[in-house]
Each structure stands twice: as structure tokens, then as C-alpha cells.
Amino acid sequence: MNSRIIKFLFGGGVAALFNLILIALLIEHLGFSTPLLRNVANLIAIELSLLFSFVIYRIWVWPGGSWSLRDVLLRQLPLYHMSAGLAILLRVLIIFPTLDFLGISYGVNTLIGILVSASLNYVISDRLVFKTKASSQADLYPPEGLSPTVEPGVSRVEPLAEQISTRSGDSPRHNQNFVLSIVIPAYNEEECIESTLASIGQCLDHHGVNYDILVINDNSRDGTEQILQRLHQDDPRVKYINNYYPNGFGFAVRCGLENFEGDAVTIVMADASDPPESIVDYYHKLQEGFDCVFGSRFIKGGRVYDYPTHKLIVNRMANQFIKFLFGLKYNDTTNAFKAYRREVIEGILPLISHHFNLTVEMPLKAIIRGYSSVIIPISWYNRKTGVSKLKIKEMGSRYLFIVLSLLLEKFLSRGDYVKKNSFEMVYPK
Known about the structure:
10% strand; Spore Coat Polysaccharide Biosynthesis Protein SpsA, Chain A; 7-stranded mixed sheet; alpha/beta; 13 helices
């Protein structure tokens, strides 16, 4: 485990013990016995323990920074108080009520709140309060088992583009040998699967995209499989397999990722919520050399149509939480509609999510493990037929589990991954 994190946790424990001793001393021995005085004692104990923890962190956990009186009083201490205040507000206003609504027990709720608050406090302290000169990255090496990762100091975008150009003799954007696989999980989608595949095929054929489609029939109980059989006979590029894992969105996508044949893959929903034109944009960006292409519905040029209000509110809260926690520029992590090169899929294995939380696991792992990304605006349309498979109340704890586990990977694997060209934003002209 990272020694700084161990020191941070130990220092926090010492400060908490100091808080308990101090408040007991004030109430039991100094006569702070009335309700008003007990509140005063609580405020005094909190403030002194904050100052005590600040000194511990400043001397022991993050040594070497500025000790000037101006910097400590006007920057470090106010930021440290802000960090502690945000952590408390996060627990009181967001984490506790949300987990309580999801039916999670108070004990687990409290433990999760402590973990998330401590993580938030650590992130802000590390990046803002006690920020020191960055250490040299010259001696970093690619992680064992991630063979696609390039050597330190080498740009990941240009060499890929050059390789494509060298193989085909064309510009990277027009390499005809580059195949994009489209993986579509489908559960009881007989009302829309045929029209979805038809619109995708027509659009990609019109733009000269070299593609194949792999539909994962997630043990549908309607006529979805019979439709897929017929479509495959009409067009061999349209293939399907039955999900050999237990039912679930994440299992179905994982099945598709184990069986796609192209140079890259994009995950598309069966309900036609993802416009085929965006698949074309993904295809071109992959050919430019990016490892991942992330669409966002919530940047300039992005649109959502007929998005249920309650889901939109939960979506924005969840994405802002992830964005802040991981320090991202990306604001639509939970959307499944993204594209990845084959080497990225190989590099983020093993995937562990069973359900829609896979949509968070995949991009966060790709970002943490250093693959280059580009963000482009996309649109989203609510389904016109069938029933949405996403149940927010059932997914809350699963999303949180993935987010917290990857947050641990981000901090505890520090130094293991080579981070290059993390994001590029592309807006419409």
C-alpha cells in the first residue's frame, strides 16, 4: 500500500482520538455541562483536532512544502477547512440520504461515508492543500501484463496513427483495413432490434465504414433470437451469439467483448438511443490514433431527447460525483456508448461488473491505466418501444462499489501506469 496513504489514515486516526479526548476533557473536567456549552465544547474540539491533523499531515504526510506564514494562513489552512467541510457535507447531504433511500444498512452506510469522505479529503489535500513539486516520471514502467502500453515518454497518439498510415498507404482517417465491431446487448428487444440494426447498417455503409455487428442475445424470451437469425442470413456482417453468462447487461457486454473480431469495438444500445452518425464519428477518431472515444451528451453540441427527469437528476449527480472524485474533465462516465481499441479491452481486463455498472468500470479503468482518450459531443434519444432495463434503485450500491474499488486502484497503484494525453475535447464548429 502507498506509504503516504497509510500515514494519512494513521494521522486521521490519531486526530480522531485527540478529538474524543479533548471533548471528554472539556465536558467532564472543565464544566462544559449545559447543552449550549456542550455544543461549544464540540466546536472547540473539532477545530483544535482539525488544526492538530493539519500539523500531522503537513509535517509527516506531505513534508517539504512552503512554511511561509502567508501561505499557511491564507491558502493551506482555508483549503484544509474547505476540504473537511466538503467531506462532512458530502456525507450529510448526499451519501447518507442516498444510501438510506437505496435501503443500505446504517452501519454499512456509515462505513461508506467515512471511506468516501476520507478519500475526498485525501484528494483535496494531495492536490491543493499540501501540493508540492511533482516527482520525476522518468523511471515509470508499463504495468506487467499490459503489453499494449508504450514506453515512457512516447506519445501514444502519433505512433498509432503512423502505424495505420504505414499499413494502408492512406491517411489514418481513411484506412480501409480498420474494422469497427459494434457490440449490442439485447434482452427482449423484438420490437426495435431490426430497425436499430437497419439504421446502423445504412448509415455506416453510406459513410464507407468497415464494420461488423455482434448482437448478444441475453436469453430473450420473445422473438429477438428468431429475428437475429433471419438478419444474419440476409447480411453475414450481422452476427449474434447467446449470452453464456447469467442474465444481466454487464454479463452480456462482457460476452460480446470476448467475441468481437474487429480492431476496435463500440457498445451500442439495442433501443436506438445512440445515433448511428456518432458511430461514424467514433470510427474516424479511432483512426486518428486515439485509444478510446468517449461521447458526452452534456457538453457543447451534445443533446438529450425525452430524458426522464428523475433519471436525468440522478445521472448528473452521479457523474459530477465521479468527475470530482477522480479529477476528470469527462462528465458522462455512466453512458455505455463509447469506443475502445482492442488493446484497451485487453488492458482493462478482468472486468467484474455484472450489470450497468460496467459502463463506469470500463472508462475509469481505461483512464486510470493511461490510455489516451478523446471526448466528442453526442445525442441520446429515449426509447420509443420496449421497457428500459436500468433500475436506478437496484444499481446505486453497485455503481458505488465499482467507483470506490477503482478509486483505490487509482491511488494504490500510483507509479504503475504511464499516463499520456489523458483527454482531448472536440467540439462542433
